[in-house]
Write a structure and sequence with these properties.
Layout: E1 14-15, E2 28-29, H1 30-35, E3 49-53, H2 54-70, E4 74-75, H3 85-93, E5 99-101, H4 104-113, E6 117-123, H5 127-139, E7 144-149, H6 152-165, E8 169-174, H7 187-198, E9 203-209, H8 218-237, E10 246-249, H9 255-261, E11 273-276, H10 288-292, E12 306-314, E13 320-323, E14 338-343, E15 350-352, E16 356-361, E17 366-370, E18 379-383, E19 396-400, E20 406-411
Parallel strand pairs: 3-19, 4-11, 5-6, 6-7, 7-8, 8-9, 9-10, 10-11
Antiparallel strand pairs: 1-2, 3-12, 12-13, 12-18, 13-17, 14-15, 14-18, 16-17, 19-20
Helix pairs in contact: 5-6, 7-8
């Protein structure tokens, strides 16, 4: 598999005036920025800025790698969370099996950075993209690419693209559930589609895909995981799957149940590659995933790795200040940012702050109710809710150590 040193994005090496959040009026290399000992608070950044905590990233990557290994799972982290070659490299270096994406464009990015095993957890219906994928794999046999199918139309389009490219495509039949976002709506429908794929001259049935993240309780998730397993067993017994099919689900809320429900119960002769596609774990958060993480049920913990730093810009009304952070700067779809601390103007000490709450946001302003002496120029540090809608707001994110020295810069590509 690709090593950390082989995976790269040619745009990762320099920063400059185009990079919002950093304050670099002239272009310079990231290596020089780090070598100079740049800090978040020495003028190298301006406000607001979203940063990544280096120690929390490392902890989270290691935690999920260890969990997966302990449960016999392969980890293909969902790359749509970060869209960053440097973060993919951390995950692959820790033993990740591959990188998952959601769209053809995201797959093209991952392949361009050097990822050698890419799983598109969606049905791709664009003939241009599918033809390119088939041709690229034919030219580069070491590249592994998989995508989902959940309709006969999807199978037909994939066949036509593979034939036009003179190559082959590997697909997984996607089993969904009523009200879910993708997938065949029954095991019988999925089994019929699997037979359709195996009859194809240019498609290979690589396994069964699914997504459990939209389910809301342990009982429904457990039942769904059992159904996916039974479909794989049935397809294997019918001769539709090879001896080591991929069986995959993805989400950061229920991976403990995946480890438990898929630990056994597979038919004799089949050795499934059980692939977990969790993505949000790499940064965790202070909102939705702090409540939904499996580590509320099992031993261990993930750490929030994303912080947004924003200045108090206006004294506002009594008991309320305005900060320079809004919807352009932080996610709000699954909860508003959470105030964690304050660095008061003229000081270099970060104080915990529990008496302040973000109650609303405009495009570039946030409204913070507080029971404190907050003043214009003070810096608030905030945690976020839902990392998947945080990364896309920033083209670059400084990676900082415990003393807020900049140790790297991550560039995203959305």
């Amino acid at each position: 598999m690709t090593s950390q040193h082989e995976l790269r994005d040619d745009h990762d090496d320099t920063v400059g005036w185009r990079d919002v959040g950093l304050w670099q009026p002239e272009h310079r290399t990231v290596a020089d920025l780090v070598a100079d000992g740049a800090s978040l608070f020495d003028g190298s950044a301006t406000w607001p800025v979203m940063v990544l905590k280096d120690d929390a990233l490392d902890h989270n990557v290691r935690t999920l790698a260890d969990f997966s290994a302990a449960h016999g799972l392969l980890l293909a982290p969902h790359g749509k969370t970060t869209m960053s070659a440097k973060l993919y490299a951390r995950q692959l270096a820790a033993g990740a099996w591959g990188i998952t994406v959601a769209t053809a464009n995201q797959a093209r990015y991952a392949i361009g950075t050097g990822v050698r095993r890419v799983l598109i957890a969606n049905e791709v219906l664009d003939p241009t993209a599918l033809t390119w994928f088939a041709r690229r794999q034919a030219d580069d046999p070491g590249l592994e690419l998989f995508c989902f199918v959940d309709s006969s139309t999807g199978v037909e389009i994939a066949e036509q693209a593979a034939a036009a490219a003179g190559g082959r495509l590997a697909v997984l039949v996607d089993l969904g559930y009523a009200g879910g976002r993708t997938g065949c709506r029954s095991s019988a429908e999925a089994l019929e589609l699997a037979g359709r794929v195996t009859d194809s001259d240019v498609l290979d049935l690589a396994g069964i895909g699914a997504y459990e993240g939209g389910l809301s309780d342990i009982a429904s998730v457990s039942g769904y995981l059992d159904e996916v397993k039974e479909l794989a067993n049935t397809a294997f017994a019918a001769g539709l799957l090879g001896p080591a099919p991929i069986v995959t689900v993805g989400g950061s809320a229920w991976f403990d149940l995946v480890g438990a429900r898929w630990s056994d119960g597979w038919v004799d002769g089949m050795k499934p590659r059980r692939v977990l596609r969790s993505g949000a774990y790499i940064t965790h958060d202070d909102g939705t995933y702090s409540r939904k993480t499996p580590y509320v049920r099992i031993a261990g913990a993930l750490r929030p790795a994303i912080e947004v730093w924003a200045q108090v810009t206006s004294p506002g009304d009594p008991g309320r200040v305005i900060i320079g952070m809004g919807k352009r700067d932080a996610p709000y779809d699954e909860g508003l940012p959470v105030v964690r601390g304050v660095r008061r103007r003229g000081t270099d000490r970060i104080e915990a702050l529990t008496s302040a709450t973000v109650v609303a946001m405009d495009d570039h302003h946030g409204y913070v109710e507080h029971d404190d002496d907050l003043q214009p120029g003070d810096l608030l540090v905030l945690g976020i809710s839902h990392p998947c809608t945080a990364f896309d707001k920033w083209g670059v994110l400084p990676v900082v150590d415990a003393d807020y020295r900049i140790v790297d810069v991550v560039r995203t590509h959305f």
